[in-house]
Amino acid sequence: MKRTVPALSLAVVMLAGFASATTYSIDQAHSDVSFKVRHLVSKVSGQFIEFDGAITADFNNLDSSSVVFTIESASIDTKNEDRDKHLRSADFFDVEKFPEITFVSSKITKSGDQKYAVTGTLTMHGVAKTVTLPVTFLGEVVDPWGNTKAGFEIETSIDRKDYGIVWNKALDAGGMILGDEIEIEINLEAQAK
Q: Taking the CA atoms of the chain, what radius of gyration do you get in angstroms?
């Protein structure tokens, strides 16, 4: 199984120059979904290992383009086994109850040179919210084996409390152990089917 996040919709909008819809798959070996969150006085980073998605792109008709992206929440990895176990628990992602994070696009618009706004529903921890992801198209190329590859990048942030992920602990000197804002970066290499 694989994970999803606000990143796949990017790919759908970026595929310029195609006269008809083209379907792309994510090259997981050359893509990543990572995040950062404030912890005390620094930031802790992590990633999701398992994710997948489908991109249907018609650059001449963005209304017929779409993105579906899925992340396996249990694949979270912060390079600390105890912390990852806690993140999979009911205090955070509750992966047994909510095994997937999904993004399904509903609208894609051009927002600038090689930039797109991809609006859709992000569902995480049992909560579904409409978000708009800023997607940058990084280009398209044919690799040495004849495969058409396209690159996309997303940088955004969400408030984890909006999705019911509220665990925290107060510090004796004031403040909390964890920040609420989650910085998200998604880099995708997609291959035309």
A: 17
